[in-house]
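Figure caption, in words: inputs first, then the predicted bound structure.
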Amino acid sequence: MKIIIKDNKENASKEAFKLFANSIANGAKVIGLATGSTPLDLYKEWVNSDVDTRDLVSINLDEYVGLTADNDQSYHYFMQKNLFDKKPFKKSYIPDGIKAINDPEGSSAEYNQIIAENPIDLQLLGLGQNGHIAFNEPGTAFDSVTHEVKLTDNTIKANSRFFADVADVPKSAICMGIANIMSAKEIVIMAFGKNKAEAVKKMIEGPVTEVVPASVLQNHSNVTLIIDEDAASMLSSK
Ligand code: GLP
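Bound structure (GLP present):
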């Protein structure tokens, strides 16, 4: 794993965007995208750049079950507002969180088919405080594919900052599995802030274990971890 440490998240995001621009210039066509606060600066860089997306396909990691695309807490809405409004892709896929209310298996199977037909060249990831990637919580099997996830209390609490009330946070999501993520040719994972320091340490210095989903990335041959100094603060060697 290649590790890049920058003084702050703005500079780290600039670095991450350079990797994206470079991969796209070198032919990457299918881009796996992520939500959360972590990728926001990277998306700003992208919006302000001349990197064209009209010939690219995007595939997002996850979506809450039960939120419509126009709900401002849905990941559909997030992507539209932060990237797609300014940088429309040829085709953008996000799991169908409405179909998933009654048919989570159907919604998941459809998404696996989309990923099979559009192999991911470059996947962007954030990191949960408990080491989750996308919504793959501790204990998720490494051979998992797209599935419905019951969110842990830890994740519901962490994500409640985006909602008016913790009770409004959906209790489940449709999410790419670990095997889908690992099938990407290249992965860029970012983490910022002291509250991610422990997860970063476990991800790269700890054993590869389903208890820390992100630790699986130690088994991938083309991963770049981009972090700020706060997120790097617990690493034993920098
Ligand atoms: C959520 C998302 C993840 C994201 C994580 C970290 O649970 N499903 O994809 O990486 O939170 O969020 P943040 O970037 O806001 O810290």
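Residues 2-228 form a domain with the Rossmann fold fold (CATH 3.40.50.1360).
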